[in-house]
């Protein structure tokens, strides 16, 4: 299956769950995340979810990070350059929903990409090797390319990996882990 077909397949699969079901699965994902050896760092990056589009609700992982007093960076989309900038999430961060329904920081304290140690990544599909397919704009591929090489890249998915290997391009950066409501895949 090519990337376009995979996007379609997983958008469809995702749409079959209710918001309540996705919320339960998001809690399970956060509980599984607690068992990973990733909590000794200071600087974490997490996306804020579009819950109406069936994305995993990252609020639960966010609460864990806040409880552990971590520095948390959240992305803001720049439509002109198809790139992301990042801001420190604080009590004063004003979050606004952009044209695509993504909650984003308005502005704030910029967070340098090369300081990020752990990144939680949205995705549509992935395979057993950790290859990932996103929405197809390359936002995360470009962002991950400018993170430290040894940053830990963690996908979040409602589903087990695709059994066939996804044809990747040079710019695709693989995941280190993918957390599902049932288990963690390590790559
Ligand atoms: N919650 C969340 N935040 C995220 C991402 C994500 O996947 N989820 N991103 C992950 O990359 C980045 C934004 N990615 C985007 C990728 C594609 C489109 C997009 O296709 N827009 C269409 C309209 C789509 C629609 O309305 O259904 C367009 O430009 O025409 C928008 C944002 C950064 N923040
Ligand atoms: N590091 C990069 N520098 C420049 N262009 C890139 C880079 N990474 C990806 N791209 C371009 O972005 C486009 C989308 O890439 P791809 O189909 O892999 O997106 P995706 O992985 O599904 O999306 P995302 O990364 O936003 O989740 C492609 O045209 C690709 O060439």
From TrEMBL:
The keyword Ribonucleoprotein does not apply. SUPFAM superfamilies: NagB/RpiA/CoA transferase-like. Its EC number is 6.3.3.2. Substrate binds at residues 50, 55. One of its GO terms (biological process) is folic acid-containing compound biosynthetic process. Keywords: ATP-binding, Magnesium, Metal-binding, Nucleotide-binding. The keyword S-adenosyl-L-methionine does not apply. One of its GO terms (molecular function) is metal ion binding. It catalyses: (6S)-5-formyl-5,6,7,8-tetrahydrofolate + ATP = (6R)-5,10-methenyltetrahydrofolate + ADP + phosphate. It is an enzyme of class 6 (ligase). Gene3D superfamilies: NagB/RpiA/CoA transferase-like (3.40.50.10420). ATP binds at residues 3-7, 132-140. Its cofactor is Mg(2+). Belongs to the 5-formyltetrahydrofolate cyclo-ligase family. NCBIfam families: MTHFS_bact. This is 5-formyltetrahydrofolate cyclo-ligase. The gene is ygfA.
């Amino acid at each position: 299956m090519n990337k376009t077909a995979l996007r379609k397949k997983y958008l469809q699969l995702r749409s079959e769950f209710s918001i309540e079901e996705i919320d339960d699965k998001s809690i399970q994902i956060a509980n599984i995340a607690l068992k990973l050896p990733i909590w000794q760092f200071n600087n974490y990056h997490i996306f804020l979810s579009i819950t109406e589009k069936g994305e995993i609700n990252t609020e639960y992982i966010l609460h864990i990070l806040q409880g552990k007093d971590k520095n948390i960076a959240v992305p803001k989309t720049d439509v002109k350059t198809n790139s992301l900038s990042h801001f420190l999430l604080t009590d004063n961060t004003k979050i606004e929903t952009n044209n695509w329904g993504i909650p984003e920081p308005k502005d704030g304290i910029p967070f340098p990409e090369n300081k990020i140690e752990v990144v939680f990544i949205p995705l549509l599909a992935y395979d057993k090797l950790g290859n990932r397919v996103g929405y197809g704009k390359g936002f995360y591929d470009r962002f991950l390319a400018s993170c430290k090489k040894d940053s830990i890249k963690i996908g979040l998915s409602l589903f087990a990996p695709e059994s066939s290997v996804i044809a990747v391009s040079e710019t695709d950066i693989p995941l280190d882990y993918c957390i599902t409501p049932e288990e963690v895949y390590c790559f």
